[in-house]
Amino acid sequence: MALMDTPRANRLHIAFYGRRNAGKSSLINMVTAQQTALVSEYAGTTTDPVFKSMELLPLGPIAVIDTAGLDDTGELGELRIERSKEMMNRTDLALLVVGAAEASVPEQGLALEKKWLAELRDRKITVIGVLNQIDRISPERADTIRTELEDEFGIPFTAVSALDKKYRPPLLSAIIKNAPTDFETPTLTGDLFAPGASVVLVAPQDIQAPKGRLILPQVQVIRDILDHKGMALTCTADQLPEMLAALKEPPALVVTDSQVFGRVNALLPREVPLTSFSIIMARSKGELSVFVEGARAIDKLKPTDKVLIAEACTHAPLNEDIGREKLPRWLRERAGDGLVTEIATGLDFPKNLGDYALILHCGGCMFNRKQLMSRIVEAQAAGVPITNYGIAIAQLNGILERVTEMFKK
To answer: Mind spelling out the 3-state secondary structure of the chain?
Structure first.
C-alpha cells in the first residue's frame, strides 16, 4: 500500500484551533507546503473542517485539520463552532493558535482560548501553542509574548509567521516533539503468532462484499500478518475444510468475518485460536474489555428496550445488511419482538444516550482510535453498555470466551 493510500483512520490527526483570522489556514498551508486551505483577509473564511493527508517524518502518515474560528458568530457560526468541537473527538494533537495582535493587548484577554484549552485537556488531547503573525510585531516583543503565553497557558508555544517559510522547520519540529505515540496500537495481530506461522483468514464474498476488492479490515490484517512475518492464507467459509486439510499443521490463528462465526466455529478444532476482523478492530480502535463487558448486556435486554446501532461509515444498505437487518433480527430473537433498534451513521451520534439499553458499534475501521474512544467515554458517562458487532455476534453464538481468550495471554 502506498504511503498516501494509508487510510485516514490510521493517521495521526493534528488539528488547528483558534480565533477567526488568527492565521490557522495560513499555518495549514505552511505545514502542508500546499494551498490546502482557503486564505482570506475576511474573518470566518473556513466554515467546515478541512482535511489534508501528508507524510511527516519521522511520525509517518498524518491528517491535518483546519477548523472554523472559535469566536464565530450568528446562527451559522454556532453550527461551525459545534463542528469544530466535534473534531476534538478525532484530534490526537491540537495546535492552539493565538494571533500576535490579540496577544499584544493584555486587556483584551484570552479567555476564549483558555476555555478551549480546558476542553481539549478534559478530552486528554495533547496541546501545544502557536503564536502566529509575529511579522506584525518586533522580534523582542514576540519572544516576550511567547514566554508570557507559556507561563499563562502551561503549554509550550512556538512563535512563527505563516508568511515566512523559515518558520516551517521549527513548527514541524514542535509538532514532532509533542506528538503522542499511543494514537494507535502497534499491531493488529502480530502478537498472536510466531514468525513463519500460518494464519487463515475467512473472508466471505457475498452480496455485502465490495465488488473487486476486500474490505478495509481484511486488507489491514493481511498487511499486518505479512509485516510480522506470518503467512496469510485466505479462503471463503465453504473452502475452510479444504484449507485446513491442506495444511500440514493446524494454523496458529483463524480470523473470520463475524457473520459466519457459527459455521467457522463448528468446523474448527477447539484448540485452534479463533477470532474475527471486527474483534481485532475493537482491540485496535477501542477498549476490548469494555466491549466484552458490554456484550453481556445482550442477555439482559427486554422487549421494551431500545438499542442504538452505530456505524462509522455511510453506505447504501443492501439486502440482509448486518446493521439494519441481521443484528436487529438476532437481538429480537433473543430479547423479544418489541425491541427497538435505531441507526446512527458517520459522525452522527445521539446526545440522548441514556435512552438506550445498549450501544452496538461497528468495527470502526473508518475512525481513528481517538474517535472511537471518545464514543466509549460518552457511553460510559451515560451509564450505557457499549460493544461492537463482532463481540455481540460472538455473544449471541455463545462463543465469546473462545474468540477473545487469546487476547488475555
So the answer is: CCHHHCCHHHCEEEEEEECCCCCHHHHHHHHHCCCCCCCCCCCCCCCCCEEEEEEECCCEEEEEEECCCCCCCHHHHHHHHHHHHHHCCCCCEEEEEEEHHHHCCHHHCCHHHHHHHHHHHHCCCEEEEEEECHHHCCHHHHHHHHHHHHHHHCCCEEECCCCCHHHHHHHHHHHHHHCCCCCCCCCCCCCCCCCCCEEEEECCCCCCCCCCCCCHHHHHHHHHHHHCCCEEEEECHHHHHHHHHHCCCCCCEEEECHHHHHHHHHHCCCCCCEEEHHHHHHHHHCCHHHHHHHHHHHHHCCCCCEEEEEECCCCCCCCCCHHHHHHHHHHHHHHCCCCEEEEEECCCCCCCHHHCCEEEECCCCCCCHHHHHHHHHHHHHCCCCEEEHHHHHHHHCCCHHHHHHHHHC
What is the reported pTM?
0.71
Sign of the CA dihedral with 78 first, then 83, 84, and 89 last: positive
Of the candidates 105, 163, 177, 126, the residue with the CA atom closest to the CA atom of residue 17: 126
pLDDT tens string 353-401: 999 999 999 888 788 888 888 899 899 989 999 999 999 999 999 999 9
Instruction: Work out whether the CA dihedral 254, 8, 48, 64 comes out positive or negative.
Output: positive
Q: What is the pLDDT of residues 132-179, one digit of tens each?
A: 999 999 999 999 999 999 999 999 999 999 999 999 999 999 999 998
DSSP letter at 363 equals -
Q: Is the preceding peptide bond at 58 cis, omega within 30 degrees of 0?
A: yes
